[in-house]
Amino acid sequence: MLYTQALNRFIKYLAVEKGYSPLTIKEYTNDLQLFHRYLLENCRYPEDFEVKQISRYDITDFLADSILVDENSPVTRNRKLYSIRSFFKYLQKNEIIKENPALLIEASKTEIRSEPIYMKLDEARRYIDAIIKEKGINRTRDLAIVKLFLYTGLRVSELVNLNLDDIDFSNKSIKFFGKGNKERTVPLHDDIIESINNYLEERQEIKIKNKGDQKALFISRHGRRINVRTVQLMVKKYAKLAGIKNASKITPHKLRHTFASLLYYQTKDLKILQDLLGHSNIATTQIYTHTDIEEKIQAINKMPDLSN
Questions:
Q1: Which residues are catalytic?
Q2: Which of 44, 67, 139, 305 is 20 to 30 Å apart from 73, CA to CA?
Q3: Which CATH number is correct for 3-93, 1.10.150, 2.40.50, 3.40.30, 2.60.40?
Q4: Other Cβ atoms within 10 Å of 214 Cβ, number
């Protein structure tokens, strides 16, 4: 069976039999398409090649180059390995291949998890202020997007896939399917509701080109659903305008970290934070229980005087 045919069957299997969300399926598809392109360009495979031709060494070379050439993190490398391993496991189970060439390839050791990069409260306010002062044509939309990140902790993939009917203005909440095809409902702060309403007034003036994009909440000036790359560039732009420290490292995910850190600082409630972030394991949420330098100073100052 040709690789492209096998990939199409695998994607249908993920959607129909496994019931994976569109976001998860997209991640598998992207990883396996990257692997396909690598085989064509670096391993000189013919345009139409059979999946049984792929060897373990082809896979290990691809994964090694993802770190050495593409500068992927070990976590990203392991995700690609998992996608490839699942693909070949499916093919072996359905007797399309006899052996799984990815079976014995080991995952990389990941870095020790450190405290996440996030903005302090004053930095988050400066960030918002930088958008308000910006004179660009997308200022109102960008303000609504950033406030959604900072008030709800959405993932960027979740944000770009939001539709108009995901917003419940009567209950002041947003409902959507996140990672792992889990439905999440997140309350909306009055500040973000106001910003979304302001944006929706401008959105009405934009001509939607594709029927499939008519229901999209956030769209470009060209009338298309906004994409992840556009949001990533926008987030960095305002970080630089606001003079945020390490502005080049501020990404949509760092805005999610900021939401989590600010919320935990205010509530100290790990369970609520876990539910709002959509984490299946509370251990993932615990990285936000860090303390900043001011809290450490206050704690030290509360120590009793040990001198007589």
A1: 155, 179, 253, 256, 279, 288
A2: 44
A3: 1.10.150
A4: 13
